[in-house]
Amino acid sequence: MPFRLNLLFFIVFLLFSVLILRLGLVQIVYGENFQREVEKTEDVTINTPVPRGRIYDRYNRVIVDNAPLNAITYTRFQGTDAEERLEVAKRLANLMTIPLSAEFIDIKGSDDREVRQQEVRLTERDLKDYWIMTRPEKAEKKITAEDRQLLKEGEITDKEVYDRQLERITKKDLLELKEEVKVIAIKRQMEAGYALTPQIIKSGVTKEEFAIVSENLEQLPGVDTTTYWERYYPEDRTLRTLLGNVSSANEGLPRDRIDYYLSRGYNRNDRVGTSYLEKQYEDVLSGQKAQVKHVTSKSGSLLETIQVSEGNRGSDLVLTVDMELQKEVEKVLEEELLQTKRKAGTQYLDRAFVVMMDPRTGEILTMAGKQYTIDQETGKPKVDDFALGNISSSYTMGSVVKGATILAGFDSGAISPGDVFVDQPLKFAGTKEKKSVRNFGPINDLTALQRSSNVYMFRTVMEMANVKYRLNGTLPIKSSTFAQLRSYYSQFGLGISTGIDLDNESTGFQGGSDIPGTALDLAIGQYDTYTPLQLVQYVATIANGGYRVKPQIVKEVREPTIREDEIGNVQHSFEPEILNKVTMSKDEIERVQEGFRRVMQTQNGTAYSAFANASYKPAGKTGTAEAFVSSKVKGAKPIEVRNSTLVGYAPYDNPEIAFAVVVPSAYTPNSSHSMSRDLGKAALDAYFDLKEKGEEEVAEKEAQEEVQEQE
């Protein structure tokens, strides 16, 4: 017995000795190495979005702002598995509602449909993935013995087996998910973003939802309640199509530009401008993101969160637009559109445009467009914003381009100021007569513009083509004359890009053939198409003495400020840019300016009836063009209509405002109305009335300051 006890103690001694030796080896020899492994961490820096910059008008009135919204977010930490996320999603589903939509199938069944907001979009694949995850036994039955054998032999992969499972899930299977759709939607949102990046589960949550989720955060790992933002438009129906859109938190980065944004530090779920001003100035409006550093252990556990940078709200844009003028013009535009639609021959009238620009700087003061539609729900007429149509849609503009035709004739040497042609119908072999509205007899260039003679323009182009008129003779005009005339038009911005800093600008369309007779149509604006913005650039070039100025919609970029009632310092100012100087002489341009003055200020002028009493001394040119609209009757021929246009500027001797009015499909043949002239008059009246009002306010303010100084 003593021997065995001693042997036992000896063995215990040896074991303790080995243990002590091993501990010494670990702590003394390799201690530092193991300590470094234990202390090894990973730093992950996450960029979080900040509110976008505001957009102001030229007088610092807010056009676009940010509205704060309560939001619920989820941050997926490394090491969190799908089962844990599912459990959190189930708990959240009991605490909040979430608008959703399901593509491809009706998850509620054909007899139980409901209106769904496009807040969270569920696809058929989302539903099937969830079905497989939550119903493993049923999912196993979707795998056949043949599938298992092929997998064993290496003929197919695990992914291909999973794809076969997905294909075999039926609509009946998915209808089992009727009560779980909200959980699926929440789980999908939770898994949409990167690890350690907050992902919006729902923005715009109610106060009750915000409170109840906040109270249960301990049972919702990764979930947080915070404040988010949404774009807010104080004047929602004004300039809306031109301002553009911002993607939602669920949409994230647009697919067609995802690589572009990812390479610039964006997250996949970041909100970005997707169209027009919001997209064009994304780099300015997006701001400097806040940075948060997450310190994690080697296993992925979150150890610490450090605020690296608070970030800065996006810079603010100051537009050249005068919102008061914009609203006045839009009000008149909407009223005129609704009233004119009641008149005979206006069944195809559905839109109208007014653009106003400073001819000296190119600053756009107003870009108004309205579209007449029928509300699908009420069946009543309504008018929507279509400011975008000023740059994206083009039309035949008619006689408004005759100023460019006269100047092309001057510069080419085909005609000279004061040249006289007899305005009477022209008859060529095998064609209908080409004529003016009436026979004006012998007229010069000034009368041709004043009374809108077509024949004078025809004869000008014929002279450019070196074609002498003979009754019933031929008209041998070559393609080179088309190119020559369009080249002259392009000097004024017709048929080419205006240079405005916006995407998807249309440059119009050229007529499809060079048939000699269509050269005469081109000369009176009835062949090629132009946009309203091209039209205002054209008349501004004539108004300012021959300088084509780039249209400018953004005036300044300003630093962001914390207070809403103040605007920051100027970061960048956009200066006027002259794109080209026309080749016509000063005397030739002044000749056309005089013709335009006579259009609006002399009794035989085509716009005299509308502008006779205008104190601001306008000049301009009217236009009517033949056009066609598609018939709703299948196989029927296009229906002939008339486009009505007007361009001008004021005062004629020192222009400070230029404008273009375009009313497509204004009326059918054998009917007419004065909508384009009424719109032009109302727009100029609004501009000069607001200018006078502003001058009075400035004078009053200066007088008050002077009194205060004296006191």
UniProtKB/TrEMBL annotation:
<keyword id="KW-0131">Cell cycle</keyword>
<dbReference type="InterPro" id="IPR012338">
    <property type="entry name" value="Beta-lactam/transpept-like"/>
</dbReference>
<feature type="domain" description="Penicillin-binding protein dimerisation">
    <location>
        <begin position="48"/>
        <end position="306"/>
    </location>
</feature>
<dbReference type="InterPro" id="IPR005311">
    <property type="entry name" value="PBP_dimer"/>
</dbReference>
<comment type="pathway">
    <text>Cell wall biogenesis; peptidoglycan biosynthesis.</text>
</comment>
<dbReference type="Pfam" id="PF00905">
    <property type="entry name" value="Transpeptidase"/>
</dbReference>
<comment type="similarity">
    <text>Belongs to the transpeptidase family.</text>
</comment>
<dbReference type="Pfam" id="PF03717">
    <property type="entry name" value="PBP_dimer"/>
</dbReference>
<dbReference type="InterPro" id="IPR050515">
    <property type="entry name" value="Beta-lactam/transpept"/>
</dbReference>
<dbReference type="InterPro" id="IPR001460">
    <property type="entry name" value="PCN-bd_Tpept"/>
</dbReference>
<keyword id="KW-0132">Cell division</keyword>
<keyword id="KW-0812">Transmembrane</keyword>
<dbReference type="GO" id="GO:0051301">
    <property type="term" value="P:cell division"/>
</dbReference>
<dbReference type="InterPro" id="IPR036138">
    <property type="entry name" value="PBP_dimer_sf"/>
</dbReference>
<protein>
    <recommendedName>
        <fullName>serine-type D-Ala-D-Ala carboxypeptidase</fullName>
        <ecNumber>3.4.16.4</ecNumber>
    </recommendedName>
</protein>
<keyword id="KW-0472">Membrane</keyword>
<feature type="domain" description="Penicillin-binding protein transpeptidase">
    <location>
        <begin position="353"/>
        <end position="669"/>
    </location>
</feature>
<keyword id="KW-0961">Cell wall biogenesis/degradation</keyword>
<keyword id="KW-1133">Transmembrane helix</keyword>
<feature type="coiled-coil region">
    <location>
        <begin position="684"/>
        <end position="711"/>
    </location>
</feature>
<keyword id="KW-0175">Coiled coil</keyword>
<keyword id="KW-1003">Cell membrane</keyword>
<keyword id="KW-0133">Cell shape</keyword>
<keyword id="KW-0573">Peptidoglycan synthesis</keyword>
